[in-house]
Amino acid sequence: MGLIGAAFVSLAALTSAASIPTSHVKRQTTELRDKYDIVIVGAGTSGLTVANRLTEAFPSKNVLVIEYGDVHATTPGTFDPPTDWITSNPDAPPTWAFTSLPNPDMADTQAFVQAGQVVGGSSAVNGMFFDRGSRFDYDSWTEAAGPEFSQCANKWNWQGIFPFFQKSVTFTEPSAEIAQRYNYTWDVAAYGGSTPIHSSFASFQWADQPLLRKVWQEMGINTPEECAGGDKEGICWVPTSQHPVTARRSHAGLGHYEDVLPRANYDLLVKHQVVRVVYPDGPDAGPPLVEARSLADGQLFNVTVDGEVIVSAGALHTPTVLQRSGIGAASFLGSVGIPLTLDLPGVGANLQDHSGPPVSWNYTQPYEFFPLPSEMAGNATFKADAIAGFDETPARGPYTLAGGNSAIFVSLPHMTADHAAITDQIRAMLLALANLLDNPEAPSLETPWATTEAPGTAWSFLLHPLSRGTVRLDPADPLEKPILDYRAGSNPVDAAVQLAQVRYLRRLLETPTMVAHGVSEIAPGAGIADDDAALEQYVRSKSTLSFMHPCCTAAMMPKSRGGVVGPDLKVHGAKGLRVVDMSVMPLVPAAHLSATAYAVGEKAADIIIKGWKKQGW
User: Fold this and answer.
1) Which of 198, 419, 517, 592 is catalytic?
2) Is 118 annotated as a binding residue?
């Protein structure tokens, strides 16, 4: 019998609970309670945020979080000892590693994506770049959803989500000496939280980091004091998700689990996979049962829920949990033999991510900067001091930098005079996205950097793609990783934007600073850049198709627009079921997703708490 078939048979085999042990981490079904008020599927960034807030708000209500991964004692940062510059750390926890189907519009390139397989989710394994989108990104969510959402009580525009960005993190200002050394700027008004999720600025920069900053200024890019307060277009200093004293990674597994225990009503079951949610009497009669299996022996069991189920398995696994539950496109579910519970075509659709090609160069003049990342591999004395500095209190040196904390964010109107011709092509398709791209204050290009050590590279991040992909469970093995079809480049407007971005970035090679360093272009080269067809081929063949920001696969929009959840994050037509993770975003923001995942979790928790208090909890 197949796994899906076995799952349906198992409904009769409900688990009976034993007495509750003192340890909060559960590994056996016999340690669970008879029933729970709330079950959260996934101990990731958003899921643990919600779990923390609900167990705090309702001490008499029991919450269970079910996680595929485990608790890991060490969750090293992007750049922690013993590694060299951005190399794999042997102590890193496991990750999900996805490879998409070949993209026919991108020279059959495949997207490679990773996600956390650990308590803390991707916040425990990501690049630690802790930025937010611009105010216009979040305003566009409401615009994309239409009048039905703009008039609702739960606003997801900038005004509605900004307080939860503030609540979600504790930002620590750098010392006066560090701030002066690196010319850091910030505005504490953008922050203000007291949550044990930390962000701070590194106490170190590579010696050539200011070179590109000077180049960007020569190109006329703005230098805002703060990019986390809604106004982001320009050269940004970005905090890192790390503790301000130890420079160790700060993640949800610490700040929303370990740091808030003990709580008698907060249970975490690890090394178990949620197979599906089950509506024995149909989706109008909720909340559903939660069916899960042990990864140790494959044993299937069910959890009874009194209040609601919150799916927070991430943008790549949430769709498959819903699809295995019979919630999704009827045509797809029928093709793989899953009985239909609810026809929601938007489940697993609308996949978005950031992607793009590089502009790269070499220098012909002597490179006189010290230290550079190459010292980590070639200078044993320097590396030994770096390791010693990381163990000091406060930590100092290269290992406090993570992957870097500076980037430019540039709007399409500031890149090309042809921006209106590009956006006119999409107004009939998606007005909200056209307005976003046409806004001179809304970034559509990101280029992060920490060093320009030869060969130098400036990546062209396409922040607002029009192409849409899908996430579908694998019919051959529905409990394994889903099948990702990125469909990158399928909308030709993406190529038009990328051509404008690459040509804009090439202008850095003509700045006085770069000329003085004898810059020599490696790619794409003048001969290619001056020809539309050749440059488009370069973009389509040389792009990285995922910068690890997948999202939007259970979008917060009306069902008529392909949405899966409403502004209260309840699944359309499924009583007692919500989704809270990066799958609910209608459009990917101009940001790495970690900070937004925390803010979405905080706002979701606020909505849920207020709703249940009205019900008398």
Assistant:
1) 592
2) yes
Residues whose CB is less than 8 angstroms from the CB of residue 362 and which lie 6 or more positions away in sequence, other chains included: 454, 455, 456, 519, 520, 522
Residue 102 is given by DSSP the state P
Q: Which residue among the candidates 272, 414, 464, 549 is catalytic per the annotation?
A: 549
Look at the block and give the residue holding tokens 């566009």. Answer: 140
Q: Is residue 46 annotated as involved in ligand binding?
A: yes
pLDDT of 174 > 60? The answer is yes
Peptide bond into 262 cis (omega under 30): yes
The pLDDT tens digits of the residues spanning 350-408 come to 999 999 999 999 999 888 899 999 999 999 999 999 999 999 999 999 999 999 999 99
- Distance between CA 108 and CA 100 in Å, rounded? 10
pTM of the model: 0.95
592 is catalytic: yes
Q: Within the chain, which residue ranges are assigned CATH 3.30.560.10?
A: 95-113+174-250+353-542
The DSSP secondary-structure symbol of 454 reads S
| Encoded tokens for 384 | 């030994």
Yes or no: is domain 95-113+174-250+353-542 CATH 3.30.560.10?
A: yes
HSE-up (13 A, CA, CB side) for residue 64: 28
Catalytic-residue membership of 549: yes
> At 190, which helix (H) or strand (E)?
none
DSSP alpha helices (H): ranges in 425-489? Answer: 431-438
Report helix, strand or coil for 326.
coil
Per the CB < 8 A criterion, the answer to whether 329 and 344 are in contact is yes
Beta bridge partner(s), residue 407 = 236, 448
Residue 61 exposed, middle or buried by CB count within 10 Å (0-12, 13-18, 19+): middle
**Averaged pLDDT for residues 32-40:** 97
Q: Is 481 helix (H, G, I), strand (E, B) or coil?
A: coil
Q: Contact 333/323 with Cβ under 8 angstroms?
A: yes
Q: How far apart are CA 244 and CA 174, in angstroms?
A: 8
**Residue 9: what pLDDT?**
33
Written as six digits, the tokens of 221 are 């890019």
Tens digit of pLDDT for each residue in 85-123? 988 899 999 999 999 999 999 999 999 999 999 999 999
Fold exhibited by the domain 3-71+253-351+553-614? FAD/NAD(P)-binding domain (3.50.50)
Cα-based distances in Å from 596 to 49, 56, 162, 247: 12, 22, 10, 21
CATH 3.50.50.60 in the chain, residue ranges: 3-71+253-351+553-614
Predicted confidence at residue 18, as pLDDT, reads 30
CA distances for 587 relative to 238, 314, 352, 489, angstroms: 22, 15, 8, 17
Residues 237 and 181: their CA atoms lie apart, in Å, by 14
Specify the 3-state DSSP secondary structure of 179.
Answer: helix
CA dist., res. 111 & res. 98, Å (int): 8
pLDDT in tens, 302-356: 999 999 999 999 999 999 999 999 999 999 999 999 999 999 999 999 999 999 9
DSSP E strands: which ranges in 281-356?
289-294, 300-311, 327-328, 342-343
In three-state secondary structure terms, 308 is strand
| pLDDT, average across residues 132-144 | 96
User: Does the pLDDT of residue 180 top 50, yes or no?
Assistant: yes
